[in-house]
Specification:
This protein has 190 residues and is α+β, with helices and mostly antiparallel strands. Helices cover 57% and strands 14% of the residues.
């Protein structure tokens, strides 16, 4: 009996029925509720899917923008090739108009010098138009022959000073900005 009293007064000692009840309600290690990892994983997966969708959208927009850029660039290049010479052609049309007027005036002209002067004025205007486009005549007289720049059509006897130099120009050469667009045909001294 003493033992019973002892157990009754012992706060840690429980009644066997209480122990059974407590075992039913106390989860075992297998049943211990852990934080729902699936919820965290699902949340992470959702975040990653959202990020993927955002990046995919961004990629598609950039791709479309780049495709539009390529199309626009090709169109601009095509237009440049088609109409790039427009300014030059307009300038040449002015010169053509001057030639037409000169030809008309030749029918009525009695003074050959006046006609010659008119043609020279048109020629000067044409040369000026070429210069405005960056075209210049190559100076070759007395210059050392350079096969990269000049085309030799003949070799002629010359003085010792003329050896290897251009002594005559058969056809003028022209440069557009820094590029030779027509090589001069020259006679070289030997």
């Amino acid at each position: 009996m003493k033992e019973n009293k002892k157990h009754k007064n012992d706060p840690h000692r429980k009644d066997p029925e209480e122990q059974i009840e407590q075992q039913k309600t106390t989860p075992t290690d297998d049943e211990t509720p852990t934080p729902e990892p699936k919820d965290e994983e699902e949340s992470r997966v959702d975040d990653l899917l959202d990020k993927y969708a955002e990046l995919q959208d961004s990629y598609l927009r950039l791709r479309a923008e780049f495709d539009n850029y390529k199309k626009r660039t090709l169109r601009e290049k095509s237009d440049l090739m088609k109409y790039g010479a427009e300014r030059t052609v307009v300038t040449m049309l002015d010169v053509l108009d001057d030639f037409d007027r000169a030809i008309e005036s030749m029918d009525q002209a009695t003074d050959v010098d006046a006609v010659k002067e008119g043609v020279l004025l048109v020629r000067d205007k044409f040369i000026s138009a070429l210069r405005s486009e960056g075209v210049h005549e190559m100076e070759v007289q007395g210059v050392d022959f350079d096969p990269e720049l000049h085309e030799a059509v003949a070799i002629s006897d010359g003085t010792e000073e003329q050896k290897g130099k251009i002594i005559d120009c058969v056809l003028k050469g022209y440069v557009l900005n820094d590029k030779v667009i027509r090589h001069p045909k020259v006679v070289v001294g030997k």
